[in-house]
Amino acid sequence: MMRLWSESVPIMFGFARQRRKLLEVELERFIQEMPTLGMLRMWVVGDLTMGTVSPASDLDLVVVQQTDEPWRRRADFWQSHLRPRVGVTFHVFTPDELEELAAVDPVLRSAQGSGELVYG
């Protein structure tokens, strides 16, 4: 018996729209909570700002924070304090790094070029 595509693969409508809503709600929560934890500025980059949200999309955030933590440990602070309800990638820079690397770092260039400044 020949199976049609729709019989073998579930078709799900509205998941991208639902995912966008989840990302937006979590972003709003972060905007409210992060300043008290030391966030100075924040941009959203990636799928949410490009309008390409899919059911697998995560939040991609560029955060400016005064910290002495090494680069590889900075996101841990935000993960442990915020306990995100969706997938999130935190790219954390210090104010000095923002100033020094803005023209050369691809993440910072993306944030300042096509990202959306949501705080600061």
Mean pLDDT, to the nearest integer, reads 90
Count of distinct strands: 4
Evaluate the radius of gyration.
Answer: 17 Å
Count of individual domains:
1
- Helix-strand category: alpha+beta
Q: What is the 3D form?
A: globular
CATH class: Alpha Beta
Helix content: 40-55%
Q: Helix count? A: 6
How many angstroms does the end-to-end distance come to?
61 Å
The largest pleated sheet is described as:
4 strands, mixed
Corresponding CATH superfamily: Beta Polymerase, domain 2
In words, what does this structure look like?
With 120 residues, this protein is α+β, with helices and mostly antiparallel strands. It has a single domain (14-119), classed as Beta Polymerase, domain 2 (2-Layer Sandwich), CATH 3.30.460.10. 42% of the residues lie in helices and 20% in strands. It is built from 6 helices and 4 strands, in the order ααβαβαβααβ. Helix 4 (74-82) links the parallel strand 2 and strand 3. The longest helix is centred in the N-terminal third of the chain and has 19 residues, at 15-33.
